[in-house]
């Protein structure tokens, strides 16, 4: 079972940047596709970005396309979410999640991910 620990959240002004990290342990990190999700108060958890097991394929929601970038370093068992040009509507708790399997396709459904990080608060002020 892969355990995930996130870091890097915080408070930033609109237009600023933050980078989230998610470190995995307890299993072979490269056997998992990784997803990033977020949940704002009163809203459902939504897909933000995903990266395939080898980092070769990345996927983004329309709302973050061209502003966010996800990548991974399997040697360090870590996945990253670089967030640029942040907007107040990006304010949410951000979660990394892992789904076992080496495929080029990354699921956007949160209920298909059995392993989750603890979440990191990202607050963007206007």
Secondary structure topology:
Blueprint: E1 3-7, E2 10-13, E3 18-25, E4 32-39, E5 46-51, E6 58-60, E7 68-73, E8 78-83, E9 92-100, E10 115-116, E11 120-125
Parallel strand pairs: 2-11
Antiparallel strand pairs: 1-3, 3-8, 4-5, 4-9, 5-6, 7-8, 9-10, 9-11
% residues in beta strands? over 45%
State the distance separating the first and last CA atoms. 40 Å
Low-confidence stretches: none
Structural class call reads mainly beta
Description:
The chain contains no helices and eleven strands. It is an all-beta fold and 126 residues long. The strands form two sheets. Strands 2, 4, 5, 6, 9, 10 and 11 form a seven-stranded mixed beta sheet that branches. A four-stranded antiparallel beta sheet has the order 1-3-8-7, with no helix packed on it.
